[in-house]
Design goal:
This protein is α/β, with parallel strands linked by helices. It has three domains: about 200 residues, NadA-like (Rossmann fold, 3-Layer(aba) Sandwich), CATH 3.40.50.10800; about 150 residues, Rossmann fold (3-Layer(aba) Sandwich), CATH 3.40.50.10800; about 160 residues. The protein has 23 helices and 22 strands. Strands 2-1-16-15-13-14 form a six-stranded mixed sheet, sandwiched between helices. A four-stranded parallel sheet has the order 6-5-7-8, with helices on both faces. It is globular and about 65 Å long. The N terminus is likely disordered.
């Protein structure tokens, strides 16, 4: 029977459902999967195979000892391996037919020639590479191999003897971001930190593999740390958009901020880091603004309400799902009868039930922003998770729709789930696998831990590496981890009367996208391709294509501009600096507090 507390949570979320009605939007990917670039065609072809069969369960990848991986379902196979083929088009009077010749290789065992050649090219270019977790699996696998190769080469250069087999195995099983290399795969904020580390190590060029606001952010963070002269290149000369970031660039967002600025009480705008520098600059010019990540947004809001006082109004945007999920989480704490002592211990030492209740009333969420990827977790996905995965661990990014978030949130209250950032999800999986292997309840009996992955499928590369590293280091053969992709059947469309193309991805586009339920993988992130990275590296080495390289720089929309007489770039960086100060001191910076309170 449902507890009274959970009924209250469901009632609260239901009250917000009307606001979510307007969020469903169609996303046209401009025939993304039909681009001639071969790695996109590989993904498309992998998805075609076997999708006509109905599956009660979601696709999944099972990670076992000795490097073994099993992929169940065509979507999982597309994540676990890369399919490549030669493509010929045979014309007839009736139609064109495609003849394909397939071969496969695991993303964890990328082409060694590619790894060797790109490692050498990066060295010649003196370039570091920072990439987001959501990159294509082939690209991530190659970068992982390059980073490990760099780490081993650096270690060998520091000694006169070859490194031992044990040391080699240690490097092969370590988190790529902890190695002494010039490759990092991380979330958007950490990408900038890794870029600084690489420049400290002597890198004179950075390649940033992500969407455009990430390259903007990396460039800004480098400038803050004295590396403004270091160029940051994107993998493509084309614009790499982001549905979430673009929702904050509309006039409706500015009007919403101006409404906040007109409030008579103290107001703070908490803006998600996954927005453009221009959005941050405009926001700063209108209203006191601090950026946040999905890892620190709750801490930021809790501390601000204590530090400024109970009259503080918090405007959170642009991610509607994340904002409403934060409110849902706080409501659940009250509804589940957390005591003042527990709130002080587990949430914030200066908060209690009364302050949390007041905070809930003082959060204003932007109503029209979401991420195309996290929007995928609709009703069908939720029902399947509830029906077939009740015994599984459930993870959810803070950006997912409320129903999926609620499942993970309720699981998190009993230690069987997590809600948070991509890094939080990765750490949760690592912790649960570690507990099963060496924790107090560890057993020698065979067991399979199931994790529902409530975020973009590109996370699988880092998860596989981490789990394999744990199993390898501990010598455990009895524990397996199954990563479940909660992909809606709406992400695929049947084509009747065509023997060659019985299934295509998406109602309106490719990459497992659906106009009714978002995307299983991010089509914007997949614009970063391995061949494109190699082309950029070669241009840097040759030094003869500077005009073309200029097109690969981050957007320069703020260069030379002023807002209210203040340099626009400085205004855009200001909210990031405030967040950095908060992360360092666990308190809002004095300058930000002054801005919030000065009008009162």
């Amino acid at each position: 029977m449902e507890t009274l507390g959970r009924m209250k949570v469901r009632t609260f979320i239901a009250e917000y459902s009307g606001r979510r009605q307007g969020l469903a939007r169609s996303f046209s990917n401009q025939s993304h999967f039909l681009r001639t670039k071969h790695n996109t065609i590989r993904e498309f072809s992998s998805l075609l195979e076997g999708l006509s069969e109905a599956h009660e369960l979601f696709p999944s990848i099972v990670i076992a000892a000795d490097g073994k991986i099993e992929a169940h379902g065509s979507f999982a196979k597309a994540q676990a391996q890369v399919r490549s083929f030669s493509l010929d088009c045979v014309m007839s009077e009736s139609k064109a037919k495609f003849i394909t010749l397939f071969y496969t290789f695991k993303f964890l065992d990328p082409d060694p020639d590619v790894v060797v050649n790109l490692t050498e090219s990066l060295k010649q270019a003196n370039m570091g590479v920072v990439a987001h977790y959501y990159m294509d699996v082939e690209l991530q696998g190659t970068l992982q191999a390059i980073g490990r190769r760099q780490a081993m080469a650096k270690l060998e250069s520091m000694t006169d003897v070859p490194i031992s087999r044990d040391e080699t195995n240690r490097i092969l099983t370590m988190d790529i971001n902890t190695l002494d290399s010039r490759v990092a795969i991380a979330d958007s904020l950490a990408m900038g930190d890794h870029a600084v580390r690489m420049c400290d190590d002597g890198a004179t060029v950075i390649a940033c593999l992500g969407v455009d606001f990430m390259s903007e952010s990396v460039s800004a963070i480098l400038a803050q740390n004295g590396y403004g002269h270091v160029p940051v290149y994107r993998a493509t000369s084309k614009a790499i958009g982001c549905s979430l970031a673009e929702s904050a660039e509309r006039v409706t967002y500015r009007a919403w901020l101006e409404k906040g600025a007109s409030e008579l009480c103290p107001v703070l705008h908490v803006v998600y880091i996954n927005t453009s520098l221009e959005t941050k600059a405009i926001s700063s010019s209108i209203i006191p603004t601090i950026t946040c990540t999905s890892s620190n947004v709750l801490k930021t809001i809790l501390q601000a309400s204590i530090q400024i006082g109970p009259k503080l109004k918090i405007y959170y945007g642009p991610d509607t799902y994340m904002g409403e999920n934060l409110i849902s989480l706080l409501v659940a704490i009250i509804a589940d009868d957390w005591s003042d002592e527990r709130i002080a211990r587990d949430l914030h030492p200066q908060h209690n039930r009364d302050t949390i209740a007041a905070l809930i009333q003082n959060i204003e969420v932007f109503p029209n922003g979401n991420c195309v990827v996290h929007h995928m977790f609709g009703r069908q996905v939720v029902e399947t998770v509830q029906k077939s995965y009740s015994d599984s661990f459930v993870t959810a990014h803070l950006e997912v729709p409320g129903e999926m978030f609620q499942i993970a949130m309720e699981k998190s209250l009993i230690g069987r789930g997590v809600v948070g950032s991509t890094s939080d999800i990765l750490k949760f999986v690592e912790r649960k696998v570690n507990e099963a292997v060496v924790g107090p309840g560890a057993s020698t009996k065979n067991q399979r831990l199931k994790f529902v992955l409530g975020t973009e499928a590109g996370m699988i590369t880092s998860i596989v590496r981490s789990v394999q590293g744990i199993l390898e280091r501990t010598g455990c053969n009895s524990v397996e981890a199954e990563i479940v992709f909660p992909v809606s059947s709406e992400a695929f469309t049947a084509v009747e009367g065509d023997a060659d193309f019985s299934i295509v991805p998406g109602v309106s586009g490719g990459e497992g996208c659906s106009s009714a339920g978002g995307c299983a993988t991010c089509p914007f992130m997949k614009m970063n391709e391995l061949d494109a990275l190699a082309d950029v590296v070669e241009m840097v080495i040759s030094g003869t294509k500077q005009i073309q390289l200029q097109k690969h720089l981050p957007p320069q929309r703020l260069l030379g501009k002023k807002l209210n007489g203040v340099d626009a770039i400085s205004l855009g960086v200001e909210p990031i600096q405030y967040m950095r100060g908060f992360m360092k001191e666990n308190a809002l910076p004095k300058q930000l507090v002054k801005r919030i309170t000065e009008k009162n």
